[in-house]
Amino acid sequence: MGIEGKDKVKVLEAGAQALSGQLGRAVLKLRKAQNLSLSELSEQSGVAKSIISQIERNETNPTLATIWRLAQALDVSIERVLQGSTDEAFIEKSSRGVTPQLVSEDGKCRLAIIGWIKTVEWLQWYNFDADPGGVLASEPHQHGSVECLSVLEGELEVEVAGVIETGSPGDTLRYRCDRPHVIRNKTSKPARATMVCILRAAVME
After folding, report:
1. Residues 6 or more apart from 114 whose CB is under 8 A from it?
2. What separation in angstroms does the CA of 62 have from each of 26, 44, 46, 52, 143?
3. Rounded Cα distance, 64 and 61, in Å
4. Residue 103 confidence (pLDDT)
5. What is the mean pLDDT of residues 35-58?
6. Do the domains at 5-83 and 100-198 have one common CATH topology?
7. Mean pLDDT within 186-205
8. What digits encode the pLDDT tens for the residues 141-195?
9. Which one, of 144, 139, 135, lies nearest residue 2 by Cα?
10. What's the pLDDT at 205?
């Protein structure tokens, strides 16, 4: 089950907030490195002091024009401002409360979206939980797409084009998801797995 429609919009919005936070840190670091005050950067860039302060505190999503003005004033490329310092190690933390979650139609299956927003167009991954009797039915994804379901707890059944396979803890089921596919928990116990969806994969022979 890839991210589609309204669910994709929610994930992209969450990603925009994360990128905004990276932008704010980059602007603050570049300003400090050049020993510029907020007032000085405002004067040189033509961006209001209050707006710069909001950007650095991750309280606003600036326009591309605003980012360009700041980049010019800081004498760096706009890519440098958007990316920050790519040479530095980083750790991003997403708490459970802000991790987007998709729910199946029967309400018994849940997909916590733990993948990186920057890869959402071609690689998605989730924590998958299924209550007893839970069924997750998904429409086809892009041609050549593949899902990998690694069972951590319980037992899960996958059906694709009439072919059925069952996975137990330690098993990984890989299958084409460019056709209707279904994941079921037919047992009386909860099941848990990690799911990775590779979009635009090479077409399988």
Report:
1. 94, 99, 125, 126, 127
2. 13, 17, 14, 9, 36
3. 9
4. 92
5. 90
6. no
7. 81
8. 888 889 999 999 999 999 999 999 999 999 999 999 999 999 999 999 999 999 9
9. 139
10. 38
Q: At what angle do helices 38-45 and 49-56 cross, to 10 degrees?
A: 120
In residues, how long is the chain? 205
Architecture of domain 5-83: Orthogonal Bundle (1.10)
Give tens-digit pLDDT for 94-112: 777 778 888 999 999 999 9
SS (H, E, C) 132-172: CCCEEEECCCCCCCEEEEEEEECCEEEEECCEEEEECCCCE
Taking alpha carbons only, the member of 138, 151, 132 closest to residue 192 is 151
> How far is 87 from 147, CA to CA, in rounded Å?
32
Helices (H) and strands (E) in the chain, counts: 5, 10
Nearest to 155 by CA among 145, 146, 165: 165
Choose among 64, 50, 51, 52: nearest CA to 27. 52
Domain chopping of the chain, boundaries: 5-83, 100-198
Q: In the structure, what pLDDT confidence band is assigned to residue 84 with cuts at 50, 70 and 90?
A: low
Fold of domain 100-198: Jelly Rolls (2.60.120)
And the tokens for 161? 């084009």
Indicate the residue type of 47. V
User: Global pTM?
Assistant: 0.58
Q: What is the pLDDT of residue 152?
A: 98
